[in-house]
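Progress report, Aim 2. The chain analyzed during this reporting quarter is listed below.
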Amino acid sequence: MFKKPYYLHTIECFGPDRCMFESNFPVDKLSISYHVLYNGLKKIAGEFSRDEQHANIDVLVKHYIHDEEPASPYFERLLVR
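Predicted structure tokens for the chain:
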């Protein structure tokens, strides 16, 4: 994934507790398949510890679901093993 250094730099600058992955699907389907995008993001997330991955998921839940309670246990299947 040629944009990987940009993702890693951004996460390094702001920390995983202030970042989250996103896409523009289904519009992005014109340029990349969902599986290719998802696998690329999994490879990037795989470079981080489980705690950092949990922090990333908690950011997503806090901003999209508006729940202050840590949600990582509910999204355990999303973590890269």
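Residues 62 and 68 are 6 Å apart (CA to CA). The mean pLDDT is 79. These observations will guide the mutagenesis work planned for the next reporting period.
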